[in-house]
UniProtKB/TrEMBL annotation:
InterPro entries: GMP_synth_C, GMP_synthase_B, GMPS_ATP_PPase_dom, NAD/GMP_synthase, Rossmann-like_a/b/a_fold. It catalyses: XMP + L-glutamine + ATP + H2O = GMP + L-glutamate + AMP + diphosphate + 2 H(+). It comes from Stygiolobus azoricus. Heterodimer composed of a glutamine amidotransferase subunit (A) and a GMP-binding subunit (B). The gene is guaAB. The lineage of its organism: Archaea, Thermoproteota, Thermoprotei, Sulfolobales, Sulfolobaceae. Residues 3-189 form the GMPS ATP-PPase domain. This is GMP synthase [glutamine-hydrolyzing] subunit B.
Length: 373
């Protein structure tokens, strides 16, 4: 059944008007979900809604500035810069779930302060169906899933949570955003996790890794923006790895596993396993897919393939991820032309002498999640 944005607004309008009887903060991350939720709420409730974007320090280059400019004719977005606090509090943390939970604590403490500042009673946010399904399933903690976990937001932070998009999936949110008049740059915008680049720094969080993945993200988006992929991005992790003779023999390629771990989903439950790298002359994606399926029968959640040559002086791996999906619950990896990948690799490798190598993720969802953390 096709999603009808007009019918959806007719249904959600009385609910919002009934729920929100005072001022509300609308949290905007810059992604399509939160921006659409804020624009919808502002359209229905007007000045009762105060749209706010928190600059956590983990945004893409000039992200807050760009989003504020793009939505300026639809709502008066305010930007609150707390980047120094977030980076200092998260620096040094390695575990994926610990990062997400610490980010959630900092994020909602900041929103709690804003709620008090504006004498508001509500927080409007862009939680969608995929967020709470993954969190309730124990796959990964989405920072914006609270009520579904039984968290009492009024007791903890002093506000009630309102989630007008909680039953929608990404494709439906895009249709709604288009109908609301959000610019193409928003409704076709790359999905960007609430914790931002934090979850694209695999393993220990450092300022150096943050700046490198920010630069690599800019390169990946420059090359892939014109493609019709559902999501694409860069990740960074330490290059330390070891050769896997048994796995290599089984798949007919040299296989290495990194010390870094990434989140996956196996049998509808969360898996936190190793990242593998395949080195072979085979560039046939269908054959590589079969290799991936064999490798992920081990405690491996993401399989990557080497692109280009090593820099022996480097210490970091940059991973490129591009997927095709309708609902973000399952996904196929994109079959990017190898010459195109090599051009990206060359530009990414030139960013820093500390980049050792570039790899491309060839894992479907499941067994991988789309994000690495």
């Amino acid at each position: 059944m096709l999603f009808d944005p007009v019918k959806f607004i007719e249904e959600v309008k009385p609910q919002l008007e009934q729920i929100v009887d005072g001022k509300a903060i609308a949290a905007v991350s810059g992604g399509v979900d939160s921006t659409t939720a804020a624009a919808l709420a502002y359209r229905i409730l007007g000045d009762k809604v105060i749209p706010v974007m928190i600059d956590t320090g983990f945004l893409r280059e000039r992200e807050a500035e760009k989003v504020k400019s793009m939505v300026g004719n639809l709502m008066p977005l305010q930007v609150v810069d707390v980047s120094e606090k977030f980076i200092s509090e998260l620096e040094g943390i390695s575990d994926a779930e610990e990062k997400r939970k610490k980010f959630r604590e900092l994020f909602y403490n900041t929103l709690s302060e804003l709620v008090k500042k504006y004498n508001a009673k509500y927080l409007i946010q862009g939680t969608i169906a995929a967020d709470w399904v993954e969190t309730q399933g124990g796959i990964k903690t989405q920072h914006n899933v609270l009520v579904q976990l039984g968290i009492d937001t009024e007791r903890m932070w002093g506000f009630k949570v309102v989630e007008p998009l909680a039953d929608l999936y990404k494709n439906e949110v895009r249709d709604l955003a288009r109908y609301l008049g959000l610019p193409k740059e928003i409704y076709n915008r790359q999905p960007f996790p609430g914790p931002g680049l934090l979850v694209r720094i695999v393993g220990k969080v450092t300022k150096e890794k943050l700046e490198l993945v920010r630069k690599a993200t800019k390169v990946v988006e420059k090359y892939l923006d014109s493609m019709d992929y559902s999501q694409y991005f860069a990740v960074i992790f330490e290059s330390t790895s070891s050769y896997e003779p048994e796995i290599s023999k089984g798949v007919g390629c040299d296989v290495y596993t990194y010390t870094a771990k990434a989140t996956g989903v196996k049998g509808d439950v969360r898996a936190y396993g190793r990242i593998a790298k395949v080195e072979c002359n085979n560039k046939d994606y269908e054959k590589l897919r079969k290799v991936m399926e064999k490798i992920t029968s081990y405690d491996i959640t993401h399989v990557t393939v080497k692109v280009g040559e090593d820099n022996p002086e480097g210490k970091y791996t940059i991973g490129i991820r591009a997927v095709l999906t309708q609902d973000f619950m399952t996904a196929e990896f994109a079959k990017i032309d190898w010459e195109f990948l090599e051009k990206m690799e060359s530009e990414i490798s030139s960013l820093s002498k500390n980049i050792k190598e570039v790899v491309y993720d060839i894992t479907t969802k499941p067994p991988a999640t789309i994000e690495f953390e």
